């Protein structure tokens, strides 16, 4: 395996010049940079990352701990984080916590062992309740999930407002008995439930809500219980894409038509929501932008550790489709 001294000799530069090129420093001429890059390629040189970590006490690595990688929302967020990290010559360690606080704690310890430069985390409610940025030797930015009083950098959707607008849309369409199924393990689900409750109270309507694990199966079973008890609401609202899919499967299995027999709406504008006739009304989240804003905020925090805590709040877009239309007489 080639060493940095051999690269310097082939490029006819100093070892320090090779290091500056590899670090992306600006104080290197274009001709020198090209000679070093050509030598690296010719010798198939790979830097000793372990030694570099020991010397600098930091890595060019960030951690990304998501709650459920099966959720397309987090797949898109992860893509944005990786894209920006790549542009900044950084690597990403991706961990899937499965909505499990113990796994979150394990992965946060792993990030400590890996000496990462920073971490992006979508925490469960138990982890969020005890979360303090000062507990970690690296900066942490929360993505998607954050309480109002959490003193940490975060990028989130305006969840209360989004759920309020989605529920109000159904009420304006003439639906009165509106049920809400939401994720039981996250601040996001709790905040969207708050928006639903506020909209129903504003119009003097009773709430009908159920908290479930944020999985397709749990949502399917919850919707199935209402169907089997013949206590079908006028409309169903799902708090995220996985729950929306489970609810949709339950309603289709019962051969219920949207919106003539029941209206349907939810979060996340996934491709399948446009294919289910007559199209499902959703709050479309700016998911890629959310992921990009999160990694940008983390990089800023790494560069300026003393800067004030920041929270970026993005707005969802209500996309009306046939599933929430007024019922035909």
From TrEMBL:
Q: Which InterPro entries match?
A: HTH_LacI, LacI/GalR-like_sensor, Lambda_DNA-bd_dom_sf, Peripla_BP_I
Domain of life from the UniProt record: Bacteria
Residues in coiled coil: none
Instruction: Please provide the record's keywords in A-Z order.
Output: DNA-binding, Transcription, Transcription regulation
| Gene3D superfamilies per the UniProt record, alphabetical | 3.40.50.2300, lambda repressor-like DNA-binding domains (1.10.260.40)
Q: Is-annotated flag, keyword Coiled coil?
A: no
For this UniProt entry, the molecular function terms from Gene Ontology, in alphabetical order, are:
DNA-binding transcription factor activity; transcription cis-regulatory region binding
Q: Where is the HTH lacI-type domain?
A: 2-56
User: Has keyword Transcription regulation?
Assistant: yes
Name recorded for this polypeptide: Transcriptional regulator lacI family protein
Give the species this sequence originates from: Candidatus Contendobacter odensis Run_B_J11
């Amino acid at each position: 395996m080639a060493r940095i001294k051999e690269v310097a000799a082939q490029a006819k530069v100093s070892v320090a010049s090779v290091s500056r090129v590899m670090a992306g420093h600006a104080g290197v001429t274009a001709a020198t940079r090209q000679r070093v890059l050509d030598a690296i390629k010719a010798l198939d040189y790979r830097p000793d990352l372990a030694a570099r970590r020991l010397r600098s006490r930091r890595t060019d690595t960030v951690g990304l701990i998501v709650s459920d990688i099966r959720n397309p929302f987090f797949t898109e967020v992860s893509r944005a984080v990786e894209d920006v990290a790549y542009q900044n010559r950084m690597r990403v360690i991706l961990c899937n916590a499965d909505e499990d606080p113990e796994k979150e704690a394990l992965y946060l310890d792993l990030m400590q062992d890996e000496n990462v430069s920073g971490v992006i985390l979508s925490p469960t409610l138990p982890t969020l309740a005890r979360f303090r940025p000062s507990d970690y030797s690296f900066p942490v930015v929360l993505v998607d999930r954050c309480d109002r009083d959490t003193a940490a950098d975060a990028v989130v959707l305006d969840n209360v407002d989004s759920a309020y607008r989605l529920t109000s849309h159904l009420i304006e369409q003439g639906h009165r008995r509106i049920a809400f199924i939401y994720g039981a393990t996250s601040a996001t689900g709790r905040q969207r439930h708050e928006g639903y409750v506020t909209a129903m109270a504003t119009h003097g309507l009773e709430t009908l809500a159920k908290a479930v694990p944020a999985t397709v199966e749990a949502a399917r079973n919850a919707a199935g219980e209402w169907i089997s008890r013949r206590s079908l609401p006028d409309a169903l609202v799902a708090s995220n894409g996985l729950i929306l899919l489970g609810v949709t499967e339950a309603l289709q299995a019962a051969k219920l038509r949207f919106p003539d027999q029941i209206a349907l709406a939810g979060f996340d504008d996934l491709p399948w929501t446009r294919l289910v006739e007559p199209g499902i009304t959703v709050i479309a989240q700016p998911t890629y932008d959310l992921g990009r804003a999160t990694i940008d905020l983390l990089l800023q925090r790494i560069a300026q550790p003393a800067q004030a805590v920041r929270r970026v709040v993005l707005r969802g877009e209500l996309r009306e489709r046939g599933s929430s239309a007024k019922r035909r007489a």
